[in-house]
Automatic annotation (TrEMBL):
Residues 87-308 form the Flagellar hook-associated protein FlgK helical domain. Residues 444-479 form the Flagellar basal-body/hook protein C-terminal domain. InterPro entries: Flag_bb_rod_N, Flg_bb/hook_C_dom, FlgK, FlgK_helical. Keywords: Bacterial flagellum, Cell projection, Cilium, Flagellum, Secreted. GO terms for molecular function: structural molecule activity. This is Flagellar hook-associated protein 1. It comes from Vannielia litorea. Belongs to the flagella basal body rod proteins family. One of its GO terms (cellular component) is bacterial-type flagellum hook. Pfam families: Flg_bb_rod, Flg_bbr_C, FlgK_D1.
Amino acid sequence: MTLSASMSAALSGLNATRRQTDVISSNIANALTEGYGRRSVALSVRPLGGVEVGTVQRNVNERIIGDRRLAQAAAGEADTRAQALLRIEGLLGAPDEASSLTAAYARFEGALIEASSRPDVPARLDTVARAGVALADRFESISDGLQDLRLEVDQQIAREVTRLNSSLQQIAELNALIFNSGSNGQDAAALQDQRQVLIDSVSEIVPLRQVQREGGKVALFTPTGGILLEGTAATIGFTPVNLITPDMTLASGALSGLTLNGNPVRTDGDNAPFAGGTLHALFAQRDEIAVEAQAGLDMMARDLVERFQDPALDTTLAPGDAGLFTDGGAAFVSTDEEGLSARLEFNILADPDRGGDSWRLRDGLGAAVTGPVGNASLLQAVADRLNESRSSPSAAATGLSRSASGHAADFLSGLAARRQSGEVELGYQMARYDTLLGAELAGGVDTDRELQQLLIVEQAYAANAKVLQTIDEMIQRIMAI
């Protein structure tokens, strides 16, 4: 090999080591940067000797990343569902909490027992009335809390859809930039990092499958067939509302579903185009979990009303008169159960704080005048009716015969069981996600390995520099002859 060829080979080696040093430095500096893919330089031997520096390659395991994204979506869905059940359980309260629904039942029952022991004491009758008002108010506050939850979820869906549309549009723009960079021979690794971060953010909202296309572009699909990005970004539509009442549902058309490029798509079920992820779970919160909780609450309110809306219990009531608990002040009609808990009221005739007379609890709601003050038969009958095992005709009932508070206990235990099951599912999905995330990170930047590689590059640099120094010395000796 001639001196000029040797010099050219050594110079190419120095250029290669410089490029490698830049890439290794970038890897170490971005070891903790989200979405960063480890870089490496493609090197090859030149035909006439020396090193040919190729393109900078971005090294990521797309299969592991894809599986991690699906696990991320599943974990997000499980967490969203679990949080909804936990919040609803908190609205009803634990049995040992003074503000719980079961505690309100217990206070009303206790007040009835105390009043029946001394029906001649007006203060005890007043306590019964106020406990009844508090029980009705507790139903209303829980119902209001459920509708507030649904409204918050509806607004959150709108924010998620906006973020989804914005991210998909940005990914489409990055696709174009990456394609153009590749066509011009420019390094597109940084653009690919940005695209991965955006896709990762979308994958928690909606589970994604990424498919490579020509020129470095990607297409995005949901596992159930929804096309989010294929050349151009899809447009997801949603219309939020400003108020939600118990009768407002997706089926009635009062609440918005999703559209994909203007076409309505399902939001429920495992085969829906957006099934999985937080968006799917939010619709489940609004249209399933909270609606089922409202139906259970209405069932308990109906049971409470129908127990005492009976002329056989209070002979002063005429057929069609409202009983001790009313539907907004009127008698309850069995076909109007939906939203009853939000309208439940204690009968104003027996409420001393609203102009009524608490002695009617002892003598009858329809009594014209007070009766014998020592007669506790009606108070005892009301207490017995409260504890009587009855099955509810409501569609949301279990079909089992229970006392009034027993129906509430069944509802609470069922909700707790669902919440516990949801937490188990969340634990599984988080463990799966953490495992896949660990596998992804293990294939990323290892600073120890990068530093070892840097030592090798430094040795190569020293070797090439030595060749140039030797050539220089040889030339100097030749010139001295």
